Write the C-alpha cells for this entry.
Amino acid sequence: MITIGTEGSDKIEQLLKGIEDFTSAGERCFLCGKSLLSGDYTQEHIIPRWAQRRYNLWDQQIVLVNRTSIPYRNLTVPCCDECNKYRLKPIEDSISQTVDLGKRAVEALGQMTIFLWLGKLLYGLLYKELTLLLNRADPTAGTIITAELIERYRTHRFFLQQARKVVECVDFCPGSVYVFSMQKMPQPVLEWDFCDNIDTMFVGCRAGRTAFFASLGDGGAEQSMAPHFAGIADLHLHPIQFREICAMVCYRSTLQTRSPKYVTIENQPHKAHQLPLGGLWLKPYFEEWEMDIYAKYLAFYLGVGVEHLRLPSGEVKTWLYGGNWNPRFIDFATYPEIPRNIIG
Ligand SMILES: [Zn+2]
C-alpha cells in the first residue's frame, strides 16, 4: 500500500506502526494496537457473544490452522474498552438486530457495515492464529506464515480501522460481499454455520435468516461476478445450498490473478483510494474455472467424497439450480438431513 503524508506529519506512519507491531500481541488491543497493560480492556469473543447465546454455540469447536481445535467460548482476543464499547459494539448491535429478519434488513445496513462485521470475524481468527504461531516454541514446525499472508493481514487490519473512523475507503469496498436469505430452522443451533479460508480471506457465515459470503481482500473483483448469482438472489437457502455457495465463492477467491493496490492520503480520517483493478495488465481477473478442482471444494464443504458430485456430463452436481438452470427451492422440512439423502 502506498501512503502519502503531508509535509512534516507522520500521523499515518504512527497509525501503521501501532497496528502492525506484533510484539507482545497478547498485551495489545487486537484492533487499535494500544498497549493494555495499564488501561481497561476485555477479552472480545471472536464469534460474538450474542450469536453464541442465541444459537447455543458455546461448545461448538473451531479448528485452527495449527490443527488444534478450540471451543467458541474460549476463542477470544484482547480488546481495549474504547474499541469494544464504542467502535465494535454498534456494528455487532446492527447485525444482531437484523440477521433474524433476513436479507433486506441486513442489506439496509450498507455494504461497509457488513464488510466490517465479517472482516472483524475473519481478522479475529487470523490474529489468534498468528499469535499462536508466533508464540510457539518451535517456529520451524508446521504451518508457515508467508510474507503474502502478513501483507494481506496488514492491509485488512488497516481497512478495519474504518470502525474507529480513522480511515475512510473512498468510493470502494475492499472486498466482495453477498447476502442471501436463509430458511427458518427448527432449532436455534441449526441457525448458525461458519466457513473460512484464511489464505484467500474467504468467509461464509449464516446466522438466523441471513447468509453472508465474502472474499474480503479482492478489491471487489469477485463482486463483478454478481450477475452470476442474479437468478438465485431471492432464493431462501437450505443449509446445503449455503455450503454450495461457500464452495463457489471460496474456489473463485483462489483464482484471483492480481492483488488490489491502494493509495492512502493522510487526512482526518485518512483517505484510502483503490487503483483500477485492471491496471495495464490484460490478463483476466481470474484464472479459468476448472470443474475438477471446484468439485473438490464442494466435496470439502459438504463433507462427502468427490465421486458423489461428478455427473456423467462432466458437470458438478448443484442444489441451487434445477432444470433449465431455474433456482431450486429445497424445503428443510422435507429434507432435514444433509447432504447424503438428496444426493443422486
Ligand atoms: Zn483498541
